Amino acid sequence: MSRKKIKTAVVGVGYLGRLHAQKHAMLEGAEFVGVFDANPARAAEVAAEFGTRAFNDVKDLFGQVEAVSIVTPTEHHYRLGMEFLSRGVHVMMEKPITTTTDEARSLVAEAKRTGVVLQVGHLERFNGSMIALGNRIKDPIFIEAFRVSPFPNRSTDVDVILDLMIHDLDLVLSMAGSEPETVEATGIPVVSPGKADFANARVTFKSGCVASLTASRVSKERARKINVYQQGTIISIDYGAQGLTITNTVPGAPGSTATQVDEEITVEKKDAILTELASFLDSIATGKPPVVSGADGLRALELAEHIQAAVKAGRPQAV
Predict the structure, then answer these.
(1) Along the 319 residues of the chain, how does pLDDT read in single tens digits?
(2) DSSP 8-state symbol, 127
């Protein structure tokens, strides 16, 4: 028996929002009602491209849709999120969830009050390499994350910690299996006045696991990788290539040295945005918790704020 289609819309159709619109138009479980953008010409252009309607006022979507992607600048996330959540509309919120943890807590509480799904766009959870990895991470000792790219040559409303590093903060929190205890960090502006374009953070967890995270949006190269070290195993994830290598230590015969052997891992490459939105609709239809909940988005933002505080203070911070 086929499910009833869920009426959806996209709020904010800049570069990333256009991709959300493209996927909404593709999803079998969605009836794509329309798009809204602060730039009416842009909304009309994207609506025409994907055969849907451009709305001139975001309020015109109220009562017309059951679920929305909010893909606007972060400063608008809280206001728009509250407007839809309070009306019982399910929200797929791009990352970071909001600009402050107080705002994020309010969104999480409102979603709980109205009984709707609040999912946050930490996209790498839907990367093919993460899906292939499954639950292979157990008791990690050290995690290193490296996410760098050239400057995007567009206005950036947040620093590199909220722009890029937050992806890896979400991933590291999901991998560590423990709460963070202390943070030390360095961040510097390069081309963005008053906003760090490069940052490095070292997070120590209560379990003893340590994570080192580097993020740059002024690099000459582009890379998105995480290495996880645990007893007898090294897990290497390349998010850009959707590649996964698991290297296991094989004990040698008495008196000989152990060897390292790579497992053969098959990774089915995914359209991460399409997979993310399909998962969002599935949570709405089935009542299953979203893969990346509002609470997950809040945890990542809390850790990001501690890292920002450590950068500003120039000394380690308790979490």
Answers:
(1) 567 999 999 999 999 999 999 999 999 999 999 999 999 999 999 999 999 999 999 999 999 999 999 999 999 999 999 999 999 999 999 999 999 999 999 999 999 999 999 999 999 999 999 999 999 999 999 999 999 999 987 657 789 999 999 999 999 999 999 999 999 999 999 998 889 999 999 999 999 999 999 999 999 999 999 999 999 999 999 999 999 999 999 887 787 788 898 988 899 999 999 999 999 999 999 999 999 999 999 999 999 999 999 999 988 888 8
(2) S
| Strand extents, DSSP E, the chain | 6-11, 30-36, 53-55, 67-70, 90-94, 118-121, 142-148, 180-188, 198-205, 210-216, 223-230, 233-238, 243-250, 259-262, 317-318
Examine the domain organization and report whether 84 and 137 are in the same domain.
no
Note the pTM of the prediction, 2 decimals: 0.92
Q: Are residues 254 and 240 in the same domain?
A: yes
Q: Is the backbone of residue 93 left (phi > 0), alpha (psi -120 to 50) or beta?
A: beta
Kindly list the distances between the CA atom of residue 184 and the CA atoms of 176, 180, 200, 301, 316, in Å, as whole numbers in the listed order: 17, 12, 9, 16, 4
CA distance 280 to 226: 25
Other CB atoms within 10 A of residue 89 CB: 23
On whether residue 1 sits in a domain, the answer given is no
Q: How many domains does the chain have?
A: 2
Which residue reads 């006022």 in tokens? 57
Question: Are 124 and 171 contacting, i.e. CB atoms less than 8 angstroms apart?
Answer: yes
Cβ count within 10 A of residue 250: 9
Q: Specify whether 197 is located in the same domain as 238.
A: yes
Contact 35, 52 (CB under 8 A): yes
